[in-house]
């Protein structure tokens, strides 16, 4: 008797099909397995209504076609709403209060487009496609030519048995739903990119007023301190000081934030002798006024604001990725990932002694792009 067998209990040899009780103790089986497993076979095939009755098959065909048609209408609703409905229009919807009419119609259109295809495909498979189970034996990797030809015939027979060739209404609506389904994706990709930038990446507010023909009328704008929006004179700029500058009249525009992102300038003063005796250094000094120079505040790496000036070394530093520019040599890049020097704004003074832009930037500001390199 096993030490785990309770008193009064008699160990029994398991039959192999009964579970071992917890109070039965250790049980040793025979360890044998059957020589062969019986083939369970396949359950008998049950015909569906569409298999027995052609009217039921026709009804299923019309139901599938209706679902594909729903998908087509959903896609058309999406496309039409995208171009016709104003994004500012709102509509009251139960449980959500006011919401954008455009978003509502776009969501419903895409939902019906996907739902119609999904439900149509499932209903097609459930009611019209063959539902008999088929056992396929394993074969070598490279089938014989006769088998390959038999595969082609099987595929053709599958197309025939799915009734795709016999039911043109089903084929037409399915093709229409699947063909139009890609339109919402293409419309969003193409339509949401907005207008082409044209030369907007190469001009700033310093270029002056834009005419109806797309050309800019030069205007020597005063340099205004930001955020005071007041003009500045050379005497206000001492050696070692830095001023954040915006063009005159910028803050009066409704789109001043967009223009500010390109027109922001840093103004600083160096001793004229501090500029390097190189072509770049001489150009930087000549484009300035009595040692005062103005450079774009937008980093040429990814557009972060260059806001740190080290007056001892005359270096400008972008805090985002540590690109460093040498002001004494026309803001050339001496460290970091920036690909270009900061563009310089050529300055002078007007008749009242205020600093003005003598000409706009002569190169695009901000990060590199395909036309700039």
Automatic annotation (TrEMBL):
It is a multi-pass membrane protein. PROSITE patterns: RIESKE. Keywords: 2Fe-2S, Cell membrane, Disulfide bond, Electron transport, Iron, Iron-sulfur, Membrane, Metal-binding, Oxidoreductase, Respiratory chain, Transmembrane, Transmembrane helix, Transport. GO terms for molecular function: 2 iron, 2 sulfur cluster binding; metal ion binding; monooxygenase activity; oxidoreductase activity, acting on paired donors, with incorporation or reduction of molecular oxygen. It comes from the Bacteria. CDD domains: Rieske (cd03467). InterPro entries: QcrA_N (IPR045603), Rieske_2Fe-2S (IPR017941), Rieske_2Fe-2S_sf (IPR036922), Rieske_Fe-S_prot (IPR014349). The keyword Ribonucleoprotein does not apply. Residues 262-356 form the Rieske domain. PANTHER family: CYTOCHROME B-C1 COMPLEX SUBUNIT RIESKE, MITOCHONDRIAL. Iron-sulfur subunit of the cytochrome bc1 complex, an essential component of the respiratory electron transport chain required for ATP synthesis. The bc1 complex catalyzes the oxidation of menaquinol and the reduction of cytochrome c in the respiratory chain. The bc1 complex operates through a Q-cycle mechanism that couples electron transfer to generation of the proton gradient that drives ATP synthesis. This is Cytochrome bc1 complex Rieske iron-sulfur subunit.
């Amino acid at each position: 008797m096993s030490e785990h067998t309770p008193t009064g209990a008699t160990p029994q040899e398991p039959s192999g099909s009964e579970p071992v009780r917890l109070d039965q103790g250790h049980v040793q089986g025979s360890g044998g397995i059957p020589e062969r497993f019986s083939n369970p076979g396949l359950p008998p095939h049950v015909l569906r209504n569409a298999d027995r009755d052609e009217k039921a098959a026709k009804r299923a065909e019309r139901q599938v076609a209706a679902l594909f048609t729903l998908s087509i209408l959903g896609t058309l609703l999406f496309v039409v709403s995208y171009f016709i409905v104003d994004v500012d229009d709102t509509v009251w919807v139960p449980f959500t209060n006011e919401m954008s009419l455009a978003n509502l119609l776009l969501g419903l259109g895409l939902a019906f487009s996907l739902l119609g295809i999904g439900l149509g495909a499932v209903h097609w498979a459930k009611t019209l496609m063959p539902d008999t189970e088929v056992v396929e034996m394993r074969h070598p990797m490279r089938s014989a030519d006769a088998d390959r030809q038999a595969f082609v015939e099987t595929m053709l027979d599958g197309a025939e048995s799915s009734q795709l060739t016999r039911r043109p209404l089903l084929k037409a609506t399915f093709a229409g739903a699947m063909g139009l389904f890609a339109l919402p994706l293409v419309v969003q990709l193409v339509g949401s990119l907005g207008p082409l930038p044209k030369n907007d990446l190469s001009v700033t507010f310093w270029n002056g007023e834009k005419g109806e023909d797309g050309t800019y009328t030069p205007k020597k704008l005063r340099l205004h301190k930001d955020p005071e929006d007041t003009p500045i004179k050379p005497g206000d700029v001492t050696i070692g000081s830095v001023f954040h500058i915006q063009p005159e009249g910028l803050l009066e525009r409704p789109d001043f934030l967009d223009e500010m992102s390109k027109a922001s300038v840093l103004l600083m003063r160096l001793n004229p002798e501090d500029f390097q005796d190189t072509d770049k250094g001489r150009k930087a000094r000549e484009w300035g006024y009595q040692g005062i120079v103005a450079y774009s505040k937008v980093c040429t790496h990814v557009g972060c604001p260059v806001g740190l000036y080290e007056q001892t070394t005359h270096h400008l530093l972008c805090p985002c990725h540590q690109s460093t520019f040498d002001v004494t040599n026309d803001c050339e890049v001496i460290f970091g990932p920036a690909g270009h020097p900061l563009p310089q704004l050529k300055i002078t003074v007007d008749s009242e002694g205020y600093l003005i832009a003598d000409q706009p930037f002569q190169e695009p500001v901000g990060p590199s792009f395909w036309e700039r390199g």
